[in-house]
């Protein structure tokens, strides 16, 4: 049975009205959670690894034959997180070197004030390293939360958007990965963006061609950044985008493959830039096996068995039952994120340690928001309003109560 299409959302200008303010308030609460956790964390060896190798990427990659940095060629671990972690430290170092010229020659950090000295001569002058390392990942988590709310609200209205955002902001797994340098948060951010940007391109294809180009460029950028975080996430995003775009672009299907090929080529250029246009380390993207995968439900079951996720699981179970029982809920807006959850949840990587189940969470929250928004338009509105409130309060209470555990 062919799923009914959702109409292309109208073009609207962003206004800071009450819904935007409430969404901003939720994101501020999420930021406060992350700041509290970071403030109670200890800097780990993994933090120092991201800091050291990230700075090497920005400042001067180690000139060893065949190796990009002292961390190796990172064939199983994307370069994106290292560059994100190292950039604030590099910027602070450059600021220190700029002010260094104001000092007396005998007090300068670099010999003769030269910027060509060792990469590490200013390392002891860096301050707030823990916050500089961790806050960029919090920023990407906030960006993803804002994007999740934007997508869910435009598809399902205010109720669906706020439920999806509320579950996201009070999910312990999201907070845990938002407060430490890692590629999982960046891959989750990129994959969600690739899938829904691809849908946006498909909707734009129903209009004049002049409206295609900005969204195609955005899709290319999202695909390239996702590939820099994790090769498997980019491959999955590319394949899924093809099927979703082919389904949505009814009369323009002949152009879908051409658009994605152009986006794929552009994303490879972006990925090449992450390796400083050095061919030898870049070749390990294709030979390192970072995208090798298999299927296992064990990681997803680990998330399901965690009592901290109880309210989320209740909401997911209710949403799935409603989706299967009510025909009005089985449309593309709800089906697409559900298919993404079913695709990502059982995937495990075999070459390196990664968490594809985490990438499924924004799609799960989108699905829950969409189904609950459908029921809120029926005679069961009061019952589901009460259920929505209880779920959000329970999940928020659990998350806030366990912040000290997340800081360990």
TrEMBL record:
Transmembrane segments: 21-39, 131-150, 162-180, 186-204, 216-249, 255-277, 307-324, 331-351, 357-376, 383-407
Keyword match Transmembrane helix: yes
Keywords of the record: Membrane, Transmembrane, Transmembrane helix
Highest taxon in the source lineage: Bacteria
Keyword Membrane on entry: yes
Name the UniProt record assigns to this protein: Glycosyltransferase RgtA/B/C/D-like domain-containing protein
UniProt organism field: Granulicella rosea
